[in-house]
Amino acid sequence: MIARLADRLAVTPDQYRKLTYRALFVLSLIVFTGAAVRLTSSGLGCPTWPKCYGKVYPPLQIHALIEFGNRAISGLIGIGVLVTAVLSFTRRPFRRDLAILATMLPLGVVAQAVLGGFTVRENLAPGFVMAHFGLSDILLIPAFALAWRATYEPGSRPRSADRTVVWTVRALGPLAAITIFAGTAATAAGPHSGGVVGQHVKRLTFKGADTLEWVVHQHATLAVVLGVVTLGAWVLKRQRGFPLAAFDPLTVLALLLAAQGLVGSVQYELKLPGEIVWVHVVLATANWVCVLWAIAAEGRLLPRSARVPVSDAAPERTVGSLQGA
Prior knowledge:
Blueprint: H1 2-8, H2 13-39, H3 62-88, H4 96-121, H5 126-151, H6 163-170, H7 172-189, H8 211-239, H9 248-269, H10 274-298, H11 315-322
Helix pairs in contact: 2-3, 2-5, 2-10, 3-4, 4-5, 5-7, 5-10, 6-10, 7-8, 7-10, 8-9, 9-10
């Protein structure tokens, strides 16, 4: 009976690939809706979890509806990624690597829900809010890896021989993660506590009244470093003679970082209006996904012991033949 059900649910590689990109999109959506909850001061719109004011439905209050709406969307997304995980086992041919990555997604959504509950219970304490956002970005790593690996069959993309380029691009990962962490700290020290006036929500104050300004400057400095490394990687690839298609991830990332910097400057000068902060969060998520894209596009390295064929050693042919998976 189980075998018969699996046959009925069988999906082709192309069908499953499309499903993985939908999963990546909806998991990004959690970040957007979660930020909207905070920036509309609806973080404690439902002060209890998982129910709202002890009921399965929210009262007709704007903040309660926004917070409960985010919970409902997260639940639907959880169902969606659960379907993605189940169908990873019925994909034909079956691939163990896809099944492992797909299984991480519903587990991650459950972890988000539990952490969200603790965040509400602790009255939006900065550490919990920052961890909640961080977990959303961490969950995008297996989501992107799943979509990327579902796009290519194992061994279909040749490995790279250019260790300098690969490691330069890989360095963007931890640098982007630290930059985003500093951004969450800036929000935790800023005016958007997530609660309405009268609700006691703690803020980051480790440098007293200067905490926000100090954290914002550190975040801006890290963002500039991230932009410089991105441009450096782009120039390095240009010097190595990579084909034009190989520049797409870094080019998009550089443009997104420029837009992010512009929005960040505007929001700071305007005293952090919620709408612009939300755009800043959306761009930060897009930047994170683009960093993952850039790292994946560089692919894996050839072992040091592997020899590059003499015919592929010419500058105009090396990257085209060896860049990949």
